[in-house]
């Protein structure tokens, strides 16, 4: 059974430290609910585990069994069994969804899939996710609604079969029916023994997928860990009890995302001299 | 009328698209860059559809000038690779001489290995060309620090009651897009290849001849 272990993880964006020593572990077969107020580092943790270059790990370790995840490039982390369903999946112009999925599935195989085998898997996954198969011919996430993007993330998870799936607010933008479909897909993967690390602000999704444990991130650290009863407590009473019972003052949110790089130029004129 | 210009066919040329007719022009170059100045006069309610797949090597300037009469349309798509010390300039201009004319000038390119690529061009809506719509797009991906891209689409508007827009971008591949593809297990090389193909390949859709379309498709794959 595989284990994902995070030890004393410090993560910064530029000069600003967001995570101040996170310790967390997760085994295959477990579903860990990660809660916490906005802007306290939940998404940062998931992005850092996946290797988003906007975030710098300044201290600590991430281990997948005995593999040092931090030494792996992003694609190797994916192939080692990590998956991140992103909060805001990028719209990628010109990249056909089916071509992309084929490349992603073949990336973790010795020999490329046979075409009929690939299309068989693709059709099944689209059907199970309730996404029209024609959408496999569209550009990746381009023009997809919020719900379609989220379902498309879960579709990829089904096809790529990771050991550990990290879901960052997968329920935002989903209508009731789509939520059922997504939850059913998660339960199916849970039954196969996958591990899940799930960020959500709402008890509704958690009620549908029954996390085995819960952790609360406050001020860039894990403030509380425990059983799933924490979820309903937060759902009904919020985060105040953490301050009252544990004496942890909940700081104002720190920015999760760095500012986009800005390019300058006269109106509609761009000159690029990369690296200069 | 449909016309294909390949390699040495590319030179200074003038065309007139007669009233109500459609002219489809496909230009493809896989060999040495050919400087040219191509002028197309599109008469009343006529349509000009142009596509240029420039996968050539070399330097020089290609100028495309389109004049639109009343109700005329122009749809232009260019994909170009500037690499290995190429110095290429594409100047694609459209003049809305009469009312209710429409034009899209769309130029996409990549530059790498000491390549230089420049997209310029004017979309001009003249006085009295009311109800016209025009757009100029110029986008260049720069692959490495040795390469330069310049995108400068210009609008000159001399009339009210028109729609006009232009966009320009020049820079590296989007890091968020690369991260997304890497996070699904694609290698950096494969991610860059897919993103770049996505940038250049749409031009293929505008090639009407099946075998040339396949050639262009293959040349873009090889060029990337």
Describe this structure in words.
The complex is a heterodimer of chains A (276) and B (224). With 276 residues, chain A is α/β, with parallel strands linked by helices. Chain A has a domain at 3-92 and 162-246: Rossmann fold, CATH 3.40.50.300. Helices cover 35% and strands 25% of the residues of chain A. Chain A contains 9 helices and 11 strands. Chain A has helices spanning 42-50, 74-80, 97-107, 115-129, 146-160, 176-191, 203-209, 229-237, 240-246, and strands at residues 3-13, 16-27, 31-35, 56-64, 67-68, 82-85, 164-168, 195-199, 213-218, 221-226, 270-272. A 6-stranded mixed sheet of chain A has the order 6-7-8-3-9-10, with helices on both faces. Chain A has a 4-stranded antiparallel sheet with strand order 2-1-4-5, with helices on one face. The termini of chain A are far apart. The mean pLDDT of chain A is 91. Chain B has 224 residues and is α/β, with parallel strands linked by helices. Chain B has one domain (2-173). Chain B has a 7-stranded parallel sheet, covered by helices on one side. Chain B is globular and about 55 Å long. Chain B starts with a strand and ends with a helix. Chain A binds chain B through residues 50-54, 73-75, 77-79, 83-84, 86, 89-90, 92-96, 99-100, 103-104, 107-108, 139, 156, 160, 263, 265, 268-276, and chain B through 138, 140, 142-145, 147-155, 166-172, 174-177, 179-188, 190-191, 194-195, 197-199, 201-202.
Q: Strand count, sense and closure of the main sheet of chain A?
A: 6 strands, mixed
Tell me, what's the shape of chain A?
Answer: globular
Secondary-structure element sequence of chain A? Answer: EEEHEEHEHHHEHEHEEHHE
Q: For the CA atoms, what is the radius of gyration of chain A?
A: 19 Å
* Reported CATH architecture of the domain at 3-92 and 162-246 in chain A: 3-Layer(aba) Sandwich
Secondary structure: number of strands of chain A:
11
In what range is the share of β-strand residues of chain A? 15-25%
Query: What is CATH's topology name of the domain at 3-92 and 162-246 in chain A?
Result: Rossmann fold
Please name the two chains that share the biggest interface, counting residues whose Cβ lies under 8 Å from a Cβ on the partner chain: A-B, 41 and 45 residues
Please tally the helical runs of chain B, counting DSSP H or I stretches of 4 or more residues: 3
Structural class of chain B: alpha/beta
Q: Look at the structure and give the mean pLDDT of chain B.
A: 94
Tell me the number of strands of chain B: 13
């Amino acid at each position: 059974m595989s284990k994902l272990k995070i030890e004393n993880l410090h993560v910064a964006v530029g000069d600003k430290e967001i995570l101040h020593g996170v310790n967390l572990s997760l085994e295959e077969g477990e579903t860990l609910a990660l809660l916490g107020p906005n802007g306290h580092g939940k998404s940062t943790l998931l992005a850092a585990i996946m290797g988003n270059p906007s975030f710098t790990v300044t201290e600590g370790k991430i281990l997948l069994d005995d593999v040092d995840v931090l030494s792996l490039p992003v694609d190797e982390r994916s192939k080692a069994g990590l998956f991140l369903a992103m909060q805001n999946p990028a719209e990628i112009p010109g990249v056909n969804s089916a071509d992309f999925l084929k490349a992603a599935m073949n990336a973790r195989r010795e020999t490329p899939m046979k075409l009929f085998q690939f299309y068989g898997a693709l059709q099944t996954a689209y059907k199970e996710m309730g996404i029209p198969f024609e959408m496999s011919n569209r550009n990746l996430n381009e023009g997809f609604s919020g719900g379609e993007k989220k379902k498309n993330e879960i579709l990829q998870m089904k096809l790529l079969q990771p050991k550990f799936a990290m879901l960052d607010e997968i329920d935002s933008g989903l209508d009731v029916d789509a939520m059922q479909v997504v939850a059913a897909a998660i339960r199916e993967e849970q039954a196969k023994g996958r591990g899940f690390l799930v960020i959500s602000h709402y008890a509704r999704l958690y009620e549908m997928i029954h996390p085995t444990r819960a952790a609360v991130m406050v001020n860039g650290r894990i403030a509380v860990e425990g059983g799933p009863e924490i979820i309903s407590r937060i759902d009904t009473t919020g985060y105040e009890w953490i301050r009252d019972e544990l004496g942890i003052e909940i700081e104002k949110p720190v920015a999760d995302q760095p500012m986009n790089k800005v390019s300058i130029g006269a109106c509609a004129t761009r000159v690029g001299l990369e690296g200069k | 009328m449909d016309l294909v210009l390949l390699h040495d066919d590319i030179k200074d040329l003038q065309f007139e698209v007669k009233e109500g007719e459609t002219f489809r022009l496909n230009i493809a170059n896989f060999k040495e860059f050919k400087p040219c100045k191509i002028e197309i006069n599109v008469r009343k309610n006529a349509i000009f559809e142009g596509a240029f797949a420039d996968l050539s090597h070399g330097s020089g300037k290609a100028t495309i000038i389109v004049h639109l009469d009343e109700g005329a349309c122009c749809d232009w798509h260019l994909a170009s690779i500037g690499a290995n010390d190429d110095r290429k300039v594409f100047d694609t201009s459209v003049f809305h001489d009469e009312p209710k004319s429409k034009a899209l000038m769309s130029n996409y390119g990549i530059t790498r290995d000491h390549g230089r690529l420049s997209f310029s061009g004017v979309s001009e809506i003249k006085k009295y060309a009311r109800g016209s719509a025009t757009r100029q797009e110029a986008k260049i991906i720069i692959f490495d620090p040795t390469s330069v891209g310049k995108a400068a689409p210009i609008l000159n508007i001399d009339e009210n009651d028109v729609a006009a827009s232009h966009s320009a971008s020049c820079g590296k591949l989007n890091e968020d897009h690369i991260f997304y593809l890497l996070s699904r297990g694609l290698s950096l090389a494969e991610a860059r290849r897919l993103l770049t193909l996505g940038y250049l390949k749409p031009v293929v859709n505008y090639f009407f001849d099946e075998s040339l379309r396949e050639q262009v498709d293959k040349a873009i794959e090889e060029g990337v």
